[in-house]
Amino acid sequence: xxxxxxxxxxxxxxxxxxxxxxxxxxxxxxxxxxxxxxxxxxxxxxxxxxxxxxxxxxxxxxxxxxxxxxxxxxxxxxxxxxxxxxxxxxxxxxxxxxxxxxxxxxxxxxxxxxxxxxxxxxxxxxxxxxxxxxxxxxxxxxxxxxxxxxxxxxxxxxxxxxxxxxxxxxxxxxxxxxxxxxxxxxxxxxxxxxxxxxxxxxxxxxxxxxxxxxxxxxxxxxxxxxxxxxxxxxxxxxxxxxxxxxxxxxxxxxxxxxxxxxxxxxxxxxxxxxxxxxxxxxxxxxxxxxxxxxxxxxxxxxxxxxxxxxxxxxxxxxxxxxxxxxxxxxxxxxxxxxxxxxxxxxxxxxxxxxxxxxxxxxxxxxxxxxxxxxxxxxxxxxxxxxxxxxxxxxxxxxxxxxxxxxxxxxxxxxxxxxxxxxxxxxxxxxxxxxxxxxxxxxxxxxxxxxxxxxxxxxxxxxxxxxxxxxxxxxxxxxxxxxxxxxxxxxxxxxxxxxxxxxxxxxxxxxxxxxxxxxxxxxxxxxxxxxxxxxxxxxxxxxxxxxxxxxxxxxxxxxxxxxxxxxxxxxxxxxxxxxxxxxxxxxxxxxxxxxxxxxxxxxxxxxxxxxxxxxxxxxxxxxxxxxxxxxxxxxxxxxxxxxxxxxxxxxxxxxxxxxxxxxxxxxxxxxxxxxxxxxxxxxxxxxxxxxxxxxxxxxxxxxxxxxxxxxxxxxxxxxxxxxxxxxxxxxxxxxxxxxxxxxxxxxxxxxxxxxxxxxxxxxxxxxxxxxxxxxxxxxxxxxxxxxxxxxxxxxxxxxxxxxxx
Length: 804
Ligand code: 26Y
Known about the structure:
Catalytic activity: [(1->4)-alpha-D-glucosyl](n) + phosphate = [(1->4)-alpha-D-glucosyl](n-1) + alpha-D-glucose 1-phosphate
CATH class of the largest domain: Alpha Beta
InterPro entries: Glycg_phsphrylas, Glyco_trans_35, Pyridoxal_P_attach_site
Bound molecules: ligand 26Y
Structural class: alpha/beta
Helix content: 40-55%
Keywords: Carbohydrate metabolism, Glycosyltransferase, Pyridoxal phosphate, Transferase
Low-confidence stretches: none
Mean pLDDT: 96
Distance between the termini: 9 Å
Radius of gyration: 27 Å
Largest sheet: 10 strands, mixed
Function: Phosphorylase is an important allosteric enzyme in carbohydrate metabolism. Enzymes from different sources differ in their regulatory mechanisms and in their natural substrates. However, all known phosphorylases share catalytic and structural properties.
CATH topology of the largest domain: Rossmann fold
Strand content: 15-25%
Number of helices: 32
GO molecular function: 1,4-alpha-oligoglucan phosphorylase activity
Number of domains: 2
Oligomer: single chain
């Protein structure tokens, strides 16, 4: 339904009067934002109900994407875009003297995730709806999202993210759909009158799970799916049990905060309870919905329901489904297991050992006694079946419960029919190394699904100047189907197009430069190379390697002020887990180096370092369109995929990368001439592990450049890092440089020098940039979810349908 501009304006004014008893002239941006949000929500509410009804009426198989993190960021513009009313709404607001972009800034980021995994889940939600697939998200409604990051004296300080303070315009509380979740206490099996064994619960706590639903609006197709997030409450029946304020607090805190650890498993009780809470609530509501609306026997569940386990955090889906099918639906173990394995599928997002979830038997038994009983049984049956087919040690290594711990990845693989990695290289490593034992047992379960990004958000919404150039050059079909970006390839030698793209980039850079000045007081020139590394701070991602190179440049310039070199602004965005000491030390060192270099009159604006605080989705939206260089420099084999690499490429940045994660596929897409590859390959990294020959000390002794750079950390060159500098130095020399920074240093420097040269030839650079944009289409999450839908979930797209 097209939007009539005049009607829209009247409606906005009318709603403002109704809700705030105010005229537009007197309303604040905040009030206008909330009014506009309500108006947008009202526009898709019919389609939301119709979509739901269509799935039910047609008995459509649906996928439920279980993820402990979702990271949608702001939703106003993407909802307007997907409803096909972004331009008209913008014009209407302009008529009223209001800038849509200013209004959009009012919206708090929905930051219910740490990084890549959570953002991927949200890109998938967009693409599932846009592809017309019956699919829903299931997660937790945290009262506080990921902490807000500030820098004080160069140190990271964490502040609470009170995103719900002024209310959340997009969600709908559905109290009538609440379910109870039981935790703690004791469970034993007792015989019922008809001779069956049934679990009896004693002294358990009952938690009330209340769902908050958010519409996931598809792109111009009248499909609106549901993201269901659960919040904890105290059930009426339990009121008298929770008379102490302390007791209430403890319970209400369950969904208060998102754990801010990215890939660093800590095994804490509340986290385990969180995991069970949203898993149990989600599965109960799926079964209830199935029974009420589908009216099919429970034995047919796998024909109508698919459940996706996003990393191991929702792995309890397996025993919880078993519990419901056996304890409540009274199926036999064999029947229940058959259904469960058919319903479940699992994605692995990491090969880092410290991210693989394990829980002690003791904690599991105390917290979730019935879950533990079921997992014990799954484990016992697994061993019994497999020991007839495989060697004893293989079965022992792969079982779920071993050495006093419950292994959630093992549970996820054994309890599902599909295990996938998130980039070709990553999926290959799962098969050959990390999960090799399981690959021997279940070769058919393993597959690859290379990640993708919500291309419309990461181009149309964040980069209007570039989008306009694309429209003028290749028409508008790319807006719907990003595969059509390849039409741009025909213009790689068209000087006029190259220049227009360069102008668009310049506009974005100037805008970011203004933002940088506003937030950090650092003045940067839009003529400089904007060299960007944005991602969580983690040793394996090697932000420190980036810093080593910057220090080298600084030392070169001090020694030889007439050195020829392009001006560069090094831009960082990264949060460190609050308990990740080493990552915080790196932040401090980057900030102190920035202070030193940015204020050195010898350097002027030849190098600038900008560490923008509080990296999140909406900050990414400001940085990415302005980037010239995309730093993807993790140690080969460590980054499962990466997704900022895809977003930066789409916006015309040139990738500087190791052959890690999806970088390999980016290289395949653009060709060796349009990307800068350096460093050890994954094979070479594994060779080092095997022959244990690596000596960082030797590199330090033999390489004068490395020595000079590292000495800067301990000889006072960089001020205010007496302890931190020593720690960095020791991590590299005394503890032998776990992530081979020094081994990759020379080839990184060389690649950086090539980039410097290439940027000097603007036409050459612009052509590379165009080729990157033109080949980014294949990294669309539309494509990725289609592959999941076809190969794993077995769900069908509902062709675009019109409700009127
Ligand atoms: C167990 C717990 C502490 C934990 C919490 C968060 C474990 C892992 C994570 C998050 C992992 C994550 O974000 N992984 C990233 O997933 C992206 C999407 O697949 C990948 O692109 C990226 O390479 C990977 O690091």
